Amino acid sequence: MGEDAESPKINHTFLRDYVTEADVISTVEFNQTGDLLATGDKGGRVVIFQRETEVYSGEYNVYSTFQSHEPDFDYLKSLEIEEKINKIRWLPQQNAAHFLLSTNDKTIKLWKVSERDKRPEGYNLKDEEGRIKDVSTITSLQVPILKPTDLMVEVRPRRVFANGHTYHVNSISVNSDGETYLSADDLRINMWHLGITDRSFNIVDIKPANMEDLTEVITAAEFHPHHCHLFVYSSSKGSLRLCDMRASALCDKHAKLYEEPEDPGSRSFFSEIISSVSDVKFSHSGRYMLTRDYLTAKVWDLHMDKGPVETYQVHEYLRSKLCSLYENDCIFDKFECVWNSSDSVIMTGAYNSFFRMFDRETGRGVTLEAWRESSKPRAVLRTRRVYTGGKRRRGDVGVDSLDFTKKILHMAWHPAENIIAIAATNNLYIFQDRVNPDAQTQ
Amino acid sequence: MEVGAEAKRIMVVALGKLYSSRTQRGGLRLHRSLLLTLVMKSARDMYHAAAQEEEEEYNGVVPRCDPAQVDSNNTTSTSTTTTQTVEPSLEQVSDSFTQPEPMEQTFTHGQTQQSRKRRGKISAVPDFLPLKKAKLDCPTQLVVLVDYVTCSDLGAAPSPIPVPMAIAAC
Question: Which residues cross the membrane (chain A) (predicted)?
Answer without folding.
Answer: none
